[in-house]
Amino acid sequence: MIIENVIGAFGEVIQIKILLLMGLGVLSGLIAGAIPGFTITMAVVLTLPFTFGLSTVEGLSTMIGVFVGGLSGGLMSGILTGIPGTPSSVATTFDGFPMARKGRPGLALGIGVWSSFFGGIISALLLMTLAPQLAQIGLEFGPWDYFSLVLFALTITASLAGENLTKGLIAGALGLLVATIGEDDINGVARFNFGTDALKQGFAFLPVLVGLFAFSQLMSDVQDTASARKPLMEKGAKAVRVEHLAALRAIAGNWINLIRSSLIGVFTGILPAAGGSISNILAYDQAKKASRNPEQFGTGHPEGIVASESANNATAGGALITMMALGIPGDIVTAVMLGALLIHDVVPSPSFIGDQPVLAYSIFLAFFLANFLMLGTQAVALRAFLLVTRIPMYMLAGVILAYCAIGVFSLHNVTFDIWTLFWFGLLGYIMRQLGFPLAPMILGVVLGDIAEVNLSRAVAISDDLTLFLSRPWSLFFLIIAVFSMIFPWYQKHRGNKTWTLAFLPALCLSLAPPLFMMGGIPRPILGGVLIAAGIWLLVKHHRGGWKLELPEEHDVQLEET
Amino acid sequence: MVSAINRDTVIAVFLLLFCGVFYAASLKIEETSYATIGAEVWPHLILAVLFVLSSIYLFQSVRATPIEATKHEVNFFTRYRNAILCYALFLGFLLTLDTFGMLLGGVAFVFLALSVLGERTPKQLAIHAGVAVVSVGAMWAIFTFALRVILPEGTILSIW
Questions:
Q1: ipTM over 0.85
Q2: Which of A168, A290, A368, A381 minimizes the number of CB atoms within 10 Å of its CB?
């Protein structure tokens, strides 16, 4: 079945035009990802208007190219200058930059590029095999479960997105509120239009997103006049020759680390809210713990680069698994990707892969191929990146602002969308300045309609609200939503307060009952394993006299990738 | 100088007022006889959550230790000058879009934005003008001729 679909997808994707578009997308992503201050999200958002005139497969393949390129682009600046291009390459600089300073920048780049490639390929293979399985699980979801899943996605994003959980939750609620403006999808009634016709249709998703994210980001980038006038990179990056063979040899000696880090990346991506900015740090920490030479980490050790780069590229596949199978975006990048899919009349859901297998597998295949194109275009991107770094930020910002206006207008050919861009750009900038994270708000805008439709369906089926607690999947998501809200306190007090030692055992023990309620064989077994793990942790802490352990070196926090 | 703690309190109060305004607006949402749940239920739920969160935020801001404003902190306009000017220019671009159109308005916006943000020596101004014409012209051409998007043309320069 999978092979048949892959063969069908080959016919769709393997066309010169699509490959060229993907190549361009990958190249753009690589350059955008390499520029500090630019994010993958911005690259994907800015590419979207160019895809309006393309067919669904062409447009989506281009966007996926940008996504994959962006994830790999961050390593170039991270290794050559010590400034990560994107938050998903932060851990790459820990060893990549020292290795470059020791005179091996070509090897560091080679290890980074090939690790990104292998991480991407591993996650592409898992995407093709796991997404249909997850979609099968998704078919079990009723509206109660979907509503709780959305709630979980919002709470975990809010808890990971900033230091202040309250601000994150407020941002999420504001996003949900923005989504209610305009005509109600269920009853066709106008809401919050304040007597104006323009607001009756509500806000289009893309102008809101470009405004909140790109416009406000650009304004933050040029806030300081002196730094805005300087070239993008003050530390001069020089062209280097990538040492492919030496890099492959280094990776061959690190294959366990590569696979472990890729799996960490994939499973981090599957979790709502957790993106490449988290997975690269987690994989780096795990690689350090598992290494025979942990003391060499941070001095230019290949294992560190392998872990970080394979994990961040693998995260993309993981995030696509959740988005394609459940229709729930994991982070801002996948929220934009979801927006792109919707614009191209593709509505991901549990039944989507079964209903439109060729299109679904075309997307999977495009992701797979984009990793090869990333490998091929890295050398070109490196040269282009060196040229772009000579441009001052203010010039890029001014030009991109105009481009945002043109791109947003081309969505529906109405000036109202540019006004939306302006107002949400202003709102996004103010929120940034006041320390409100934007990720929960953007997810709120995207998920608002899904939450409302499912709440409405749930109430239409039964007015018994206890179903939210008695249905296993709904209960499961609500429990992890509660724990995700406690997570910031856990992270803050870990190593200082005794109660933090009970956090993980309590999570394990709480998640077991819904797994037992699901029935069957594997899930109750998993529930049993969780109970055993919870009890084992409690006993371990009890025997240790509830002695506090030193906290991890790196905090887990979501940043805009 | 408004300290950070006062700022948070002001934001929290603003959010509470915002909830009030939206709640009042939600009372005007049309009620339908055919709906399983009314169109106002979901917004009311969100507003209730937002109200509770804003109240918690207000409580936290009042309880938090006041942060002393540093002596060398720059004033509001100096700090936000670039952003304010860019937003003002963008607003001007939007208000004059019907007159100048996307091409002329876009070129003018980029030129003015670059000149406001960058240096204003004759050489730099010439570079800004060149960048504005080439970048907006190229984007306009791609969208108009390649992607067949009819961008606002304005009353001054009528292409079609």
A1: yes
A2: A290
